[in-house]
User: What shape does this take?
Amino acid sequence: MKLVDYFSLAFDGVKERKGRSIGAVIGIVIAVVALALALGIGEAFRAMFYETLRRAFGPDIIYVMPTEHLTESDILIMSSLPNVEHVIPIVGQGVLLKAGTFERSVMVYGIRAEYLKFIMGVEDLEEAIEEGSPDLVGLNILVGEYLSYNYLTKTKLIEIGQQVILQGVDRTTIAVVTGILKASSGPGVAFINTGSSVFMDIDTFFSLFRRDMTYDLAIVKVKDVNRVEETIEIIKAYVPQAEVFSLKFALEQFGIFMNSVQIFLGAVSGIGLFITGLWIFDTMTINVVQRTREIGVMKALGFKKRQIMFLFLAEALVITIIGVAIGAVVVLGLAQVVGIPMFGALIKPKITPFILLLVTLTPIATNIVATLAPAYRAAKLDPVEALRYE
Assistant: This one.
C-alpha cells in the first residue's frame, strides 16, 4: 500500500465515526489553544520586561543598591573610579500628596537637577517638561503629568505655581509646583514611573525626610561599555555593602525566571494534551473493539500486522492534524483580540514560529504514543477469531 492509501482509508474511518472523531478534534483544539496562549502570554511578558530592563539599565549603566547604607563618601569614591563618567545618587520616600481636594499616595524622589534629565531620558530637561519650568531648588517640586491631570474626567488636578502638601510619616511640608513632567511609556531608569512621581532637590529632601543622608540607590554611568564587568568588580571592592549589577546580569536572571514561568505555564496547559491523549487512547481502543470483524477481513485479504497498525496510527494522525489546524487558526485569531492589561497597556500573546511548531508537534507526538497500544492490539488480533466476532 502507498502512503496516500493509508491516509485515504484513515480519513474514511474518521468520517464513519463522526461523533467520537469530532469530540477528539474539539479536545485537541482546546488543548492547542490553551497551550499556545499560555506560552504566547509568557513570551509577551518576556519581551515587555526585556524592553523595560533595557530602558531601565542601558548597556552603559551599573546599579548600586545598598544592603545596609550608601553614604556621600561612597558616592565620592565611586565617582573617582576609572571608567566612571558620573554617579547619580537617588533617594525616595512615600508621602501623601494633597492639592486642594485631590489626594494621592505618591513617591517623592530627591535628585540633583542636573541628573534628572538622565532619569527622563532626554538631553535637555526642558524636553521633558509638559508645562512650567524645571526649577528644582528649595521647596520647588516637579510632578508627573498623571498627577496633574485626570485623563478620564479631563480635569486639571494641579496647577503650575500651586502650593501642595507633602505629608510624610513624621514630617509634613508645603511645596510649590513649578513644572509638570511628561510621562514615560513605562518604568524607566531606576524603574521610576515619572508620570506618577514627584521630584525635589536632594538636599531639600534630606532636610525634610531623611536626616541621616543615606541613599537608596546609585546609578553609575560608565565611559566604556566594554569595561562594564571590570568596573562592577572595582565598585564591589570599594563598596562591599552594596549589590552591584548591570543589564547583562539583570537579563540573565530574568531569563532564568521567565524560563521557569513558561515551563510552569506549559506544564499546566499541557494537562489538556494529556487528557486529549487519554481521549484518543479511549477512542482508538473502542475502534479496535468495534472493528474487530473488519480487522479480521483485512487480515484475510492479506494485510500485514504493520499495515493494520499503521492504519490506526494514520487515523489518529488525521484527527490530530485536523484539531491542530483548527486550533492554530483559533490561536492566531485570539492573539489579535485577547490580552492582559498591565502598565496601562494590553499585553497580547506573542505567538512565535517556535510556539506554533511546539503546539503542532506536541499533540501529534502525544496522540501517536496514545494510539500505539490500541494499534498494536489490533495488529495482533487472530484473523480467525476476529472473523467470528459479532
